[in-house]
Design goal:
Blueprint: E1 14-16, E2 22-24, H1 25-28
Antiparallel strand pairs: 1-2
Length: 43
Amino acid sequence: MDNLTVGDPAPDFSLPDHQGILFKLADVHRSQNVLLVFNIGFS
C-alpha cells in the first residue's frame, strides 16, 4: 500500500467493534462523518 498524504481518502477496512460486530468503513462513510484516530503509542 502506498503512503497516505493529507487529504487522501481513507482506504476501506473491516475491524470488529467493542461488541465483536464487524465494522466496515464503506458501510458508513457515505451517510455519516467518520473520525479516524491513529494512536502512536504511549511512552
